[in-house]
Prior knowledge:
It is a single chain. The chain is of the alpha/beta class. The chain folds into 2 domains: 41 residues, no CATH class; 86 residues, no CATH class. Strands 2-1-3-4-5 form a 5-stranded parallel β-sheet, with helices on both faces. Strand 1, helix 2 and strand 2 form a beta-alpha-beta unit. The radius of gyration is 17 Å and the shape is globular. 21% of the residues are buried.
Amino acid sequence: xxxxxxxxxxxxxxxxxxxxxxxxxxxxxxxxxxxxxxxxxxxxxxxxxxxxxxxxxxxxxxxxxxxxxxxxxxxxxxxxxxxxxxxxxxxxxxxxxxxxxxxxxxxxxxxxxxxxxxxxxxxxxxxxxxxxxxxxxxxxxxxxxxxxxxx
Length: 151
């Protein structure tokens, strides 16, 4: 919710009152298909591509996002090591600063809210697929990459 703070037409679970809506649906994990992609298809909402204003940054630093949430698996030590060996510029694993997006020009990692936020903000973003969000990601952000890693 903290990523959506201030967005119109978004309410938190604590302020949600079912009587204020004509239709409600709980989104739950589905091991076969990404639940957001499924909802968007059923509701005939286009998944993308999302229009971004790509801002060129002078910073050459990569964020590595390792933490996934079920059904997405977190990166293994072997996968993290593989990423680190192939990065030419400075990097940081799971940055914690509040506005960390401002300090990086690229992001690589598993599907999570930070990866989608980085792609939305126009950072060069690479998804390491370990769950079922690959189709949704590429529909929303077709100019970004998918990279498969063993292990």
